[in-house]
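hey can u check if this looks right to u? its 327 residues, i copy pasted from the old doc so theres a chance i mangled smth
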Amino acid sequence: MTASHRRAAVAGAVAITVLLAATACGGGEDGASANGLEKSEILLGTMTIADTASVQLALSKGLFKDEGLTVKTQVIQGGAAGIPLLRSGRLDISFTNYVSLFTAGVKDPRFEPKIIAEGFNSAARTHVVMVRGDSPYKTIKDLAGKTIAVNTKRNISTLLVRSAGRAQGVEFDDDKSFVEVPPPAMEHALKSRSVEGVMAIEPFGTQMQQTMGARMVADLSSGETANLPIAGFAATEKFVEKNPKTVAAFQRAVVKAQGMCADRKVVQDILPTYAKGIDAKVAAAMGFGVYPTTLDAAHLKRVSDLMQRFGYVDKPIDVKNFVATPS
């Protein structure tokens, strides 16, 4: 599905461009920046994966600066790692997968996260299970009882693997089936035989295929998880309410960058500049996902429904409570 098709198919999507800026209230506090933003410098949690190409593009093209923002980044291992940093205020905004975000918001009523922009939707080969080239395992079903590396447990990665496994009659367990390995280290984990499979995020899946002959045994963007919302940008409700103009400025820059990422060549060119060890050959061959430019609670509900089905939460989630709305 192309980015334009995705945008056209989203019904009732909430535009996240100028709405917040046009309606933002509160004239700023003591120390507000000269350009009217409540906070002109923010710390953003991000990852060195294809999903976050829009962040690096916005930085390199000066899109944040055009909005009066200075954005500093902190690399995190996975979306789950950004949650405590958001909760404590050590990050202002973080790229995070929706499973980790929804789980944290449901389990801790004091943590009130708000999604301020969608970041990435899956597509063919963007999230896969891979094994060594000489592995005897041919399908995800063959990995029953084996160890699979994921970036963090109880997140979108484990949910995708569990969904693909159940479709083949295999039940994976978050505690017993998975070990945590940072995405750049998964190739070493396969080579060292410390795991039998890895849940690979692009561009690392393609890199492992090219450098060590790793094989894909499951494409996790298929069936009920095809074109699934994976991750987005979130802040706390307190931060959003206190800094509406700052959030709006961030949204405008990210939405512009997301739109630019609809061009695969743009993503291919920016990726090697921030993903260590990734070259142009890998970037050109990797699976290419969707970078949404709208924020749609109905679309995100697909994730919460899957979470309930696999026991990540006990009852339905009202996703609208997690979505930031214009002030």
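The longest helix spans residues 244-260.
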